[in-house]
Specification:
Blueprint: H1 7-17, H2 24-39
Helix pairs in contact: 1-2
């Protein structure tokens, strides 16, 4: 059985696994901010 992970953990793991010279911590921060903002949108 695979271990279940929340969305932010999956995003962090994805960023950790990609090959890039960019600042991964900054990317994670931006993704977290977007995720939280998307959750605050009223439809």
């Amino acid at each position: 059985v695979k271990e279940a992970q929340d969305t932010l953990s999956l995003l962090d793991r994805y960023v950790d696994d990609i090959e890039t010279n960019l600042d991964k911590e900054r990317i994670k921060g931006k993704l977290k901010s977007l995720y939280v903002s998307a959750g605050d949108i009223d439809i």
